[in-house]
Each structure stands twice: as C-alpha cells, then as structure tokens.
Amino acid sequence: SYFAGQDIYSLFRREAGHISGQWKWGPRMTATLRIVQDRLARVGEGQGTVLDALRAGQRATMPDLESLGLNVREGSR
Hints:
Elements: H1 8-16, H2 29-44, H3 50-67
C-alpha cells in the first residue's frame, strides 16, 4: 500500500491531540500552502525533506505577514 502498512489514522488521532484548541489558520494560509505544496512535490522527486518544505513555508510566510503590517514572531513548542 501507499503508506507501507502504517496505520496513518491512528497516528493522526494521536498527533492531533498535540494541537492547541486555540489553533487558528493565518490570514495568508493559501500563500503558505502553495509554497509548502511546491516543496513537497520536490520531496517526492527526491529533492529535500518534508522538514525542508515546512521551513520554506515559514521563511516565506513571515515576511509576507509583515508586509500586511502585522507583527510576527516565531512560536515555540
């Protein structure tokens, strides 16, 4: 199978519990998503990692939000 026998639904249930109930999508999520999707496609071609894709999304999103006049900072877990 595509996921090599992994129970992805069990994994999702477990990990979803780590997401804060106060989570909100950012005002430019669609722009961020485009960047991440582009980078994930490259990962599928053997170029980079999933973490690289997520970091690229963050790098592009921070200045994009600042250009809207928003104060932004990186969060921590």
